[in-house]
């Protein structure tokens, strides 16, 4: 009789196998990237480029603050979900808040560097020019149209 029973599937081992498969199929991706915001940094001959994945956000939801050696990227989106049950004459509302707050460090001073930001298809792109200076120093960076 005991042999006729099916063994319960060990979910821990299944999850561990998925993690190992994910790691080896994406060796340069951190497992934490699945639950956090992905940020990529690039350097060209004339600029530094920061790309941030912000799906489901538009430019009105994003604030970019410029500090001495840091960029702080905040995105906040609130959504109110209303449910009405006519059979029980009840009404409920749920507020869904999605918040992202990331800081990117740089080895040079940022406030006087020329920079621009665009947001298209859920990707925020911040371009920091290597040459040139702006005055007065920048404290917040507006997102311009693509």
UniProtKB/TrEMBL annotation:
Coiled coil: none annotated. PROSITE patterns: SHSP (PS01031). It comes from the Bacteria. Residues 30-146 form the SHSP domain. Pfam families: HSP20 (PF00011). CDD domains: ACD_sHsps-like. PANTHER family: HEAT-SHOCK PROTEIN 20 FAMILY MEMBER. Belongs to the small heat shock protein (HSP20) family. This is SHSP domain-containing protein.
